[in-house]
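Task: sequence design from structure.
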């Protein structure tokens, strides 16, 4: 697929566009884009950034920088554009050559993943059951919820980054090894008798 390329004046006026750029912007021909200023297509959150980035490119400070902008095509469709810019001579004047790539689907996937992670985080931390996230091999805690801290009498700082072995949480460390093997082999386990030791050395069945 041909890369979308435009050449801009330092004020954002489109001086040249190839077929791929016209297709991306939903214009029938590249010539149709020459009547426009690229900055006019950018949405509010990206407009000022583009103005500043063009100025930096003109001063030689942003050449080769990959940037992302949200814009609206000539037919009103919103998309995310990833760009790579550089300075070139064009008809006797210095101008900006911008290579563009539509990354809308990638951004949607990233947003969906972020939303999913946020929902999981809220559920995890609000759960009335003690829950932890730890490295399978080392037992090092990556995250713990409030119920876990309450049950084991530790602070978050005391647990995060430390392993269950280091803190002596498992009354029988071999059970933790057995649980790890079950997770590796079957992906889950249930009805495994577990007894843990709190910070004050109390034993609790979980």
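Answer:
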């Amino acid at each position: 697929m041909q890369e979308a390329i435009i050449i801009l004046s330092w004020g954002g006026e489109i001086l040249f566009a190839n077929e791929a750029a016209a297709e991306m912007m939903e214009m029938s021909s590249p010539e149709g884009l020459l009547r426009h200023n690229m900055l006019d297509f950018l949405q509010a959150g990206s407009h000022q950034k583009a103005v500043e980035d063009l100025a930096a490119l003109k001063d030689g400070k942003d050449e080769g920088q990959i940037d992302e902008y949200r814009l609206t095509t000539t037919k009103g469709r919103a998309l995310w554009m990833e760009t790579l810019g550089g300075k070139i001579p064009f008809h006797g004047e210095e101008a900006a050559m911008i290579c563009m790539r539509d990354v809308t689907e990638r951004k949607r996937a990233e947003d969906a993943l972020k939303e999913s992670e946020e929902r999981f985080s809220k559920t995890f931390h609000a759960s009335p059951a003690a829950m932890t996230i730890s490295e399978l091999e080392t037992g090092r805690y990556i995250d713990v919820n409030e119920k876990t801290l309450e049950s084991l009498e530790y602070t978050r700082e005391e647990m995060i980054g430390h392993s269950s072995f280091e803190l002596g949480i498992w009354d029988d460390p071999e059970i933790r090894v057995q649980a790890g093997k079950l997770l590796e082999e079957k992906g889950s386990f249930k009805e495994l008798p577990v007894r843990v030791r709190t910070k004050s050395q109390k034993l609790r069945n979980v």
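The helical segments are 19-24, 30-33, 44-58, 104-126, 146-152, 156-159, 164-167, 173-186.
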